[in-house]
Structures are given as structure tokens and as C-alpha cells.
Amino acid sequence: MSQFFDLVKYYYYGSAQATTTEKAGTTTDAGNAAIKVVYTSAIAEWKNPGSGVVGYLQKGTTQTVVGKIQVNGAWWYKLSSGNWVPGEYVYVTGASRIPTIDNNVVNQNTKVKIKYISGYSIAVWSNPAIGTTGQYLKDGTEVQTIGYTTANGKKWYKLANNTWIPAEYTEVVSSSTVVTNITNESNTVAINYPHYSIAVWSEPGRNSTGKYLSDGTKVQTVGYTTVNGKKWYKLADNTWIPAEYTKVVSSSTVVTNITNESNTVAINYPHYSIAVWGEPGKNSTGKYLSDGTKVQTVGYTTVNGKKWYKLADNTWIPAEYTKAVSSTDTTSGNNTVTVNYPGYSIVVWSEPGRNSTGKYISDGTSVKYYATANYNGQTWYKIGENQWVPGQYVKVNASNNSGSVTVKYISGYGIAIWSNPGRNSTGKYLENGTTVKYFETQNYNGQTWYKIGENQWVPAQYVSVN
């Protein structure tokens, strides 16, 4: 009956009203489990704590909270939408009823039986420990679960419709862990089982789906694995077929030998456009880049002796139709650099890397800069009209190490987010025009980088400071 009293307490206390002062970073046990944005401006809404900005919540916005987790000593709150907000920018109500959750759901297929009081049912929840759905499962009912997590120290099972039940009121009937050793490879195969059909399985060799594929049918596979010495193909809907009853029609392996390196290149194909490819030399996306267009690349690889550049959206262009370029990005005039060339002065140039002005700036001098440019892989800082200094001899001052930046790139494209300045693309990107907060700046190889989240950096050359 403890679950019944849990529900009574939830609804009773949930009707209380907050009485404490609404300040960012504070909580109260009164009221429903929710957050209210009380920061001085809009705050970012994140896909995961500290990574993947998906939108913004305006000041005064309230949202239902379904859980919380502590990351690097800071609390993050999970909204009913599945997105996250940092606790330091919000006022939290119903704090004592917000479950602390393990953000890592273990993917495991487990059939369980409800084990409660005979004749009674348990509630089905929309999230672990908070938010009942109004649905119930009777004692003795068998259900298939697809994963589990921990909330407030208790185990919860996830059902196929993304609802949850407490493990303490169940017993395991059967269990099988989701296949993880999968090689991602795109193939087209044809069923090769003359006069017959083959079964489609939910796991390699286990749990037939009741579906069949007839001899000669062509299907797209997205990966493969080996179980008990036999190869199985994974289909796009996460079902499986045995490779022994198929033959390969076409194949394309996911590119893995990629060198992560940030560059700006310009399309160099006079009077024409070049195709953008899903893979190096295969699967045209239907997009094109016209001659002279500047794009950011996040890495490169070599296929059949030819170099290919990887773009931020995981598409590819051939290096043979590009050339390296410099690019300028206007910033505010509130940023400064200090000459770092002990015992000497540095030259001021009229253009990045070209045409000395005959002027010099001595070591230790701090000056404002108004724009940056990338020339031959090095960042240059514009300190006045037709006056530039090289990044390798200056350091960016930290007096303006927080604020916001807006992506200034190509319409319809995005820039890569890096786990370290200039190294290791995260595979995520920000679309052109997106505005995000930054919390730190760093100079790497003469170029300024902005930190927009934990292990998330973007280069100054593709953003403007607001």
C-alpha cells in the first residue's frame, strides 16, 4: 500500500504554493515540481547536461521538472520535454519531490511480472518516481521492458512506450542484453533462400517478430554483428536477419580513418558548383556549393588516393576542387590582446601576413581588437583600420571571458563543436545564426576559441561576439 500513500502525498503536497523569495539557484519544497526562469535574460535549454543547446527559455517561463542530476558539482534539472536546464539560473519548487536520477539508462530487454498484492495494481509513471500516467498494471501481468535506471536509489524499468514502473513490485521472467558489438556498415542485400522466406528477428536468433522476407527481396542493412559464430545483419528498424540467407548487392563502409582538423576552404571550380556527398565519392546529397563559397571543414580522409574534406554536418567534398583561404569575422571592440614577445616589439601589418606598416608594438602593450582573420592557418587580430597583428605573438585577455556569440557562417549549414580547441570534433554542430553563451576563451595556435559548454568549443573565426 506504500505506493498508494506515495500518490496521496504527491498530490497533497503538489497543491501547496511556494512561499520563499524567487531567486536563481534557490529551491523550495512547496509547490509542484517545476522550475521558473528568474535569470536576467533567457537561458539555454540543453539536450544533455552541458551539451547540445536545443533552444532558449525566456525569463519568467515555468516548466514541469521530472528529475535532477549532479554534474561536476552543479545541479541540472530534467524537464518534461526531456531537455535540461542548469539549476544556477532557475528557481525550483517542489524540490523534495524531484527524484535524483541516473542519467544513464541501461538498454536491456527484460520480461517482468507484476508482483504486488493479489487483486491490486501498480501505477505506470511518465518518469521514474514522478508523474503518474493514469494507467495501471494488475498483479500477475507480464510486460516487456527495454531498459532500466536508478532514481533516488531505487531501480525503475522502462517500458516500450517510454513509461516506467518500479522494479520493487516486479520479478524477472526473462532477460537479454541489447547487442552492442555492432559494426556500422551500410549494405544492400538480397534474400537468398530459393522458394522460401526467412524470419525477421528482434534480436540475433531470438524473439521472432512474426515478419518474413521472401526470396529475392532486397533490403537495406545498417550494420552487422556475430553471435555464436554466425553473422547477422541489422535492419533500419532495429530488427535482424541471418547473413547466411542473403547475398550482398552493394556495400559502403562508414569512414573511420578521419584526421580531425579545422580549416576554412573556398570552392575552386570556376563558373561551376561542386556536389556535396554523403560519403567520399558516394551518395550525392543533392546539395551543391558554388565556386568561391567558403566553408568550414572539421576533418579529412583519403579514399582511393584522393583527399576529401568532412563538413560539420557529416557530409563530404573533394579537396581537389578547394583552396585554403583566410576569413574575417567582425567582433565587438571590447576585446583586447596583449603583446607577448619578451624583449622585443612586433610588426603591425596592413593585411594579415602582408605589407608591413612600418609601425611596431612593444612587448606587454595591450590593445583593443575589432576583428579576427584566419590566414594560412593562423589567427590575426585587427587593431585598427588596415592594422593587423599575428596571434602567435599576442595573448587574448580574459577580462571579457563570458558573454554570447552568434554563428556567422553559410545559410543552411553549421559549424562544428570541438571537445578541445582545434582538436577532436564532437560530431555536433551549431546552425548558422544560432546564438549561444560562452564561459571562457582560449588561444590555441594563434586562434581564439570560445567555450560554450563542458568539453564544447567553437572557433572565433566563425562567430561574432554580441
UniProtKB/TrEMBL annotation:
Residues covered by the S-layer protein C-terminal domain: 135-167, 206-243, 281-319, 355-397, 422-460
Stored Pfam families: SlpA
Domain of life: Bacteria
Alphabetized InterPro entries for the sequence: SlpA_C_lactobacillus
Record protein name field: S-layer protein C-terminal domain-containing protein
Organism whose genome encodes this protein: Lactobacillus jensenii
Lineage: Bacteria, Bacillati, Bacillota, Bacilli, Lactobacillales
